[in-house]
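Page 37, top half.
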Amino acid sequence: MDRDAALADFDRARSEWEEAFARVPDAALGFLKPGDDYALGGLAVHVNAVLAGYLTLLHAIVAADFQDLTPSPPADAEAVALAVRRGLSPAERGPALAEMRRLHVEFRDTLAALRETDWTRVCQVVYGAGQDPLATKPEDVLGWVRDHYREHVPHSAELVDEWRRAKAGG
């Protein structure tokens, strides 16, 4: 897929996620299905953390001029994990969505600013200690985040259904 089409699809994926999240009732934002890692409202926190993490990766790839890279793990991983399990209050929904939009625009603008030849340029990235490098292109990173948005569209709907069943006592 060429960059313009990929960026347009990325925007559609964000809209799909935002529309799905808008269907989550405020009362369900703190719902955590037994055995799950994501409260319903925590999905927004998680999406933002993924956006921020991959945005940091894109900046690092560009700063390294696509040379081999071992990014640092996020410093706030533990706090994010707790917030993901806690979910959001209704008052936190708006700021979380505003942050998602801000991160999305920065992510998109970072990709749009790349030279056309860098869109498919490979950087060898070591994602974890002891792992082999993974050939990573900006188009790959965009695809991962786009697919991540879409992964949580049905996930949020399933959790809303679970919340409704739990609320009904069954």
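Page 37, bottom half:
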Amino acid sequence: MIKRGRKSFAQKQAEAMISRMDRPLAPHDLTDEETEFWSAIVDSLPADWFTPSTLPLLTQYCRHSVQSRKIAELIERASSSPDLELADYDRLLKMQQRESAALASLATKMRISQQSTYDKSKKKPAQNASRLLAGF
């Protein structure tokens, strides 16, 4: 909740400490692509968001994100192939589903998904159903 008025000295010091905090570095065993994704996630959140206990989750999140992208590329290439076997296509879709489930689970656990940051007080106003159906 945002307080009105001037900030206290203690609050200013706490904010200064947090802004000086070092952001966690990517583990050395991540690939270059995974490391780029790590940096994008870490830089998009406050410096104190990730604790040492959540870093393994973030590591896996980066790995799953890159694998998910690679599987999507395989699906794209396979769907344009004239001799695509249905079983192969089904296997790729199942792989994609597993990666998506892992990503959703990890994002929720680390509180970086929309679901975990949802604020009921900022809920969108309900739309009139008749207005929605009028467009069809």
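Margin note: The chain is about 60% helix and 0% strand.
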